[in-house]
Amino acid sequence: MQSTLQSGQSKVKETLLTPRFYTTDFNEMASLDISKNAYEFEAILEEFRIDYNRQHFIRDEEFNQSWDELDKDTRNLFIEFLERSCTAEFSGFLLYKELSRRLEKTSPIIAECFLLMSRDEARHAGFLNKAMGDFNLALDLGFLTKSRKYTFFSPKFIFYATYLSEKIGYWRYITIYRHLEKHPEHRIYPIFRFFENWCQDENRHGDFFAALLKSQPQFLNTFESRLWCRFFLLSVFATMYLNDFQRADFYNAIGLDSRQYDMQVIRKTNESASRIFPVSLNVDHPQFFQLLDECAQQNSKLVSIDKNNQSKLIQTFQKIPAYSKLILNLFTLYFMKPISSQNIAMIIK
Fold first, then answer.
1. 302 and 323 in contact (C-beta within 8 Å)?
2. Where is each Rubrerythrin diiron-binding domain found (predicted)?
């Protein structure tokens, strides 16, 4: 019998690193003027309408086998990868679907773009959920919709965060795909064969949010916007780094070194962001990845403390040194001198 993972029943504890569901100020979103960039959005919409991956997410005969040969640890880590990925994709679907509904009358072009992106995200989430079915598990997405707490982000924060999440998703998927293309002996499950086309959806979504940012120069050309761009770059990079540090065994199972993988993905995403954001992070600073390593180690200590059987009060006191070092390192990373993007003049022209 197929069991059902629900957020209320799952043993995975919701933390700051858990994929989240978002909502925003829909009235403010509807009031944004995109008229100066209308031609760009029309071109993006036409590309979304083509639906390049309409026939891509179709399970083939390679899925029709038992996966019992996977050792227990690898199996559990892979299931967690599927669960987190499915939750993240479904979160995108819900946000984009609601935005398409709210903007239908005021910004029909943008509304249809969001609708078609929600189509893509639903397709991704469904494909991942079917993969979980091969391990006799499934996410109850309806229950997840009702039970999860929603985090409010203003439109500009939605733009920053979602642009980066889509772009970093592209680099994560394509890096894994290219690695496994060269080393098929490490492809533990057929879903990885779908990553090349899949990540192009992420890339197109990122381009859409880049166009939204360019249509609102106030989100890019002020002192405050430079600070927020740095904040979201560091937040996205640190979240991925800390998560993957805890899951190094999963990457080992597919023949990757998690640290080297994250370093490559961060460098590529930082480079992509520099084409839109006014600043990028100095990831070549000799301390940048050293400090992320220290953050990851402190986060692991926090996870270990959560697993012990001591009282909440004792756990709280035990966490203070780790939290202090983690926060200090993140502040140090944030205040590293950023790199000004060379093309910012063209972005805000």
1. yes
2. 80-213
